[in-house]
Amino acid sequence: HRRPSWGYRVRLIKLTITNGVATANFTPELQAYGPDSAGSSFRAALIRKQIEQTLFQFPSVKEVVIQIEGRPALQP
């Protein structure tokens, strides 16, 4: 059983899938792991990959957008 690379305080606010685009909106705690914070860009890339791998399991998902409180986050 693999655990996520981010803290347990991070929560998913909302997930929508529209026209093949999955938008995952997270709580602000995710920002602590982004490249503009104390977290490294490498760690941010690993977290993004984990989220993408999970969402790409759904055949209808062709693209993943990650947000923190509605703002783009963990961009490639």
Describe the protein's architecture and organization.
The chain has 76 residues and is α+β, with helices and mostly antiparallel strands. 20% of the residues lie in helices and 28% in strands. The chain has one helix and four strands; from the N terminus they run E-E-H-E-E. The mean pLDDT is 84.
The helix fraction, in percent, is: 10-25%
Order of helices and strands: EEHEE
Strand arrangement within the widest β-sheet reads 1-2-3-4
* Low-confidence parts: none
- Record field, number of beta strands: 4
- Relative strand content: 25-35%
Class by SSE composition: alpha+beta
Main beta sheet strand tally, sense and closure: 4 strands, mixed
General shape: globular
Radius of gyration based on Cα positions: 12 Å
Name the descriptors.
76 residues, alpha+beta, four-stranded mixed sheet, 1 helix, 20% helix
Provide a quick synopsis of the model.
The protein is an alpha+beta fold and 76 residues long.
Which helices and strands, and how do they pair?
Layout: E1 12-18, E2 21-26, H1 41-55, E3 63-68, E4 71-72
Parallel strand pairs: 2-3
Antiparallel strand pairs: 1-2, 3-4
